[in-house]
Amino acid sequence: MKTGITAINEKVKKESVFVGELISEIKKIIVGQDELIDRILIALLANGHILVEGVPGLAKTLSIKTLAACISTGFGRIQFTPDLLPADILGTLVYNPKEGSFYAKKGPIFSNIILADEINRAPAKVQSALLEAMEERQVTIADETYPLDELFLVMATQNPIEQEGTYPLPEAQVDRFMLKVKITYPTIDQEQQILRRMAFTAKDNSVKKVVDPDDILRVRSVVDEVYLDDKIEKYILDIVFATRYPERYNLLELTSLIEHGASPRASIYLIVAAKAYAFIKGRGYVTPQDVKSIGLDVLRHRIIPSYEAEAEEKNSDDIIKLIFDEIPVP
């Protein structure tokens, strides 16, 4: 077994070289936001989607647009508004008077990397259309079904400070995002760098291509090969089951704080995301710290706090941190 682990470790070290180059190229444009960049790469390598929550002006759009340029792939931005229709995202049938027939005009969802900006601005029908495309990886227009590209990533954003005129995503639909990331303001040193780099009327946001889309698809199979010990697998299961049955893990104080625990998607995504995290760190094996590092982002939107938790001003992050503190690390 050690020989096998050594082999995959060497393979990952070789295959993950581009990650450092990719991050360096992105950071020519983006200052700070290291965690956001890591999480976008994890979602990309693990074939998942990401929900980002943060106030305006924190380089969410610029980050994902820069990544798309660095891998030379299609990029589409959809600004969600209350008057948006599902057809505005998916596409619709258009009549061609010259031919006397209808043809399918595909919407902006038919790209590789999609920014769904302020997703909670659009009504439920539009949100569900996007989320269905994310889950099924295909779109039906009239009676024809069109597959989406194999390299397909949606990054949706939410503004946490403005809730008037918004349509919160239902918990069951938020579950379709692999990760939910919360980002905050830069430090004063980082903001000084931002000023020196961006405070000009003419800005150069050009980056060079670092890797091809085909290379991303190829290394996904390498991510799948990253070694996960049975003890780490049991650790992940204990974490997820502690959100459902805290009394089994002597976490009696959480019994009244959790309305609903994490779904089976949490277990799946914890494993896949931890493997992708290990890959971008250049390792061919998952450690408990990998699980902890990515755990908040995988779990925070999958645990529904109770009214008692809200009364005690406890959120899902507080609950997850307590579980991580109490579940024995292998």
Report on this structure.
- The chain has 330 residues and is of the alpha/beta class.
- The chain has 2 domains: 31-198, Rossmann fold; 216-326, Helicase, Ruva Protein, domain 3 (Orthogonal Bundle).
- It is built from 14 helices and 11 strands.
- Strand 6 and strand 7 (144-147) form a beta hairpin.
Helix and strand element order: HHHEHEHEEEHEEEHEHHHEHHEHH
Q: For the record, what CATH class of the largest domain applies?
A: Alpha Beta
> What share of residues is helical?
40-55%
In the CATH hierarchy, the architecture of the largest domain is: 3-Layer(aba) Sandwich
Low-confidence stretches: none
Average pLDDT level: 88
For the biggest sheet, the summary is:
5 strands, parallel
Count helical runs. Answer: 14
CATH domain topology of the largest domain: Rossmann fold
- The CATH superfamily label of the largest domain reads P-loop containing nucleotide triphosphate hydrolases
State the secondary-structure class.
alpha/beta
Overall shape: globular
Strand content: 5-15%
- Looking across the biggest beta sheet, what order are the strands in? 2-5-8-1-9
What's the gist of this structure?
This protein is α/β, with parallel strands linked by helices and 330 residues long. It contains 14 helices and 11 strands.
List keywords for this structure.
330 residues, alpha/beta, Rossmann fold, Helicase, Ruva Protein, domain 3, 2 domains, five-stranded parallel sheet, two-stranded antiparallel ribbon, 15% strand, globular
Write the layout of secondary structure elements.
Elements: H1 2-15, H2 17-26, H3 34-45, E1 50-53, H4 60-70, E2 75-79, H5 86-90, E3 91-96, E4 101-106, E5 113-117, H6 124-136, E6 138-141, E7 144-147, E8 153-158, H7 171-174, E9 179-182, H8 188-198, H9 213-225, H10 230-244, E10 258-260, H11 264-280, H12 288-299, E11 304-305, H13 307-311, H14 316-326
Parallel strand pairs: 1-8, 1-9, 2-5, 5-8
Antiparallel strand pairs: 3-4, 6-7, 10-11
Helix pairs in contact: 1-9, 3-11, 9-11, 10-11, 11-12, 12-14
